[in-house]
Hints:
By secondary structure, the protein is α+β, with helices and mostly antiparallel strands. It has one domain: CATH 1.10.630.10. It has 19 helices and ten strands. It has a five-stranded mixed beta sheet with strand order 1-2-8-5-3. Helix 12 runs antiparallel to helix 13, helix 13 packs across helix 15 and helix 17 packs across helix 19. The termini are far apart. Keywords: Heme, Iron, Metal-binding, Monooxygenase, Oxidoreductase. One of its GO terms (molecular function) is oxidoreductase activity, acting on paired donors, with incorporation or reduction of molecular oxygen.
Amino acid sequence: MTTAERQRSAQQLIRPQLPAExxxxxxxxxxxxxxxxxxxxxxxxxxxxxxxxxxWLVTGHDEARAVLAAPQMSSDRINxxxxxxxxxxxxxxxxxxxERQAGSFIFMDxxxxxxxxxxxxxxFTVRRMRDLTPRIHEIVTDRLDAMIExxxxxxLVHDFALPxxxxxxxxxxxxxxxDRDEFQRRTAKLLSLxxxxxxxxxxxxxxxxxxxxxxxxxRRSPGDDLLSGLVRDTDLxxxxxxxxxxxxxxxxxETTANMLALGTFALxxxxxxxxxxxxxxxxxENAVEELLRYLSIISMGVSRHAxxxxxxxxxxxxxxxxxxxxVPAVNRDDSQYExxxxxxxxxxxxxxxxxxxxxxxxxxxxxxxxEMAVGFTELVKKFPAxxxxxxxxxxxxxxxxxxxxxxxxxxxx
Length: 413
């Protein structure tokens, strides 16, 4: 197998291939591509063939929830029939040795997934997130006050959106915030659409080595953090603890950071909505849900593999076939939302799938909601005259990343 074939096969497994016109945002930076919007208007489940790959693409809301809740659908892309068809046993062993799969519960099915989920659910309760709110408020206000003291202009990503969730997840897990450059740099490499498979392997190994050292430290001297609790109170192996901690660290800062930055960009480009939130802080919970729906930063979609034949929305998905739920399209489904392409911070809360659905629904969603609610509330209060420091067209978009957002957001006030 040539290097190019090796790269293509591995990338097809990691991210099912879809045409660029369905994934690349080509108009407004907050909207799905025109091609995806047009496709959504022609139906709710679509068979897509691209570069020798065939997948079902779901763009309807009800159909998406059915896929994500169906027990016939598997999240285990690593050991699926698709994996065996795409890559050789030798490449599979190189990419996914047992120690690297350990603890990666988002790619597991029941009962393995159930075991890990049960251990972690108690750590991410609504009550615990509310108890964290004063500390999150302190972190948010410290970062915003530092921006004020420094003076305009500022890069909202560097100065606010990235530090806030990074600080929160570091404290929650017991990671030294001084190590942030290490995990942020390697996370960015892992999420880049341009990273080669060899670079992916290297960064995965290095990130696991970093986290394994932390697990060892917690075994020697546990604290009051979440990771110490897992070390002390469960029978998880070191490999499992390392995998879980890596997932929580990556998901805990990347997604929320991009929602804070892209959400601010969207509000600045919709000044009437910015003003509504500024003038009525009680709208913040609705605003958070609306921004999650409207922006849908998981642009590449969520994939599942059929373990057996299953009917979704009148379409039969055969055993072994791959389904991709297009989160941006599903969250703009006009059967669920009136005027779905409008950003309305006072829109009544709906059932978006920004956090997924079913047993794999995002474990940290309540934490993300609290961080965004506090973040946007304090941002519009402390910076009522916030505006872009560059033309909107010059804001660098993360079209090269699997999690969408902005690389930087120059602002002034």
